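Its record is set out here:
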Amino acid sequence: MKRAWAWRLGILLAVAGCGEREKPSGAAVSAAAPPPATSSPLTAPVDYLGATAAGKRKAEAVVDLAPLLAALQQFHAAEDRYPARLQELVEAGFLARVPQAPPGKVLSYDPASGMVRLSAGPSTDR
């Protein structure tokens, strides 16, 4: 009976010792460690609202391109080519209208590959 408890205690100590190892101190650790958080409990609500607004803007930009990308795929499947310009999707009936780029972004289209990119820059007509 005493051997069983000793055996269990040995296994418990071995498992407990398998945790995260202590990091060595020095310059190598500080270079790999993430920067300390600059948020405090006082600024947490403002940080949260800012992150939420930034996420909303990014999500709106992605959602606005989804119908355009679907229309490009449908056009390619039907015509076996990509349209020469995005307005051709509207003329062929695949889209109701070409979506506008969000403020501060530019929508660029490559007819050779069918790639649509949304990049930073002033908004211009397509």
Observations:
- The first strand starts at residue 105 and ends at 110.
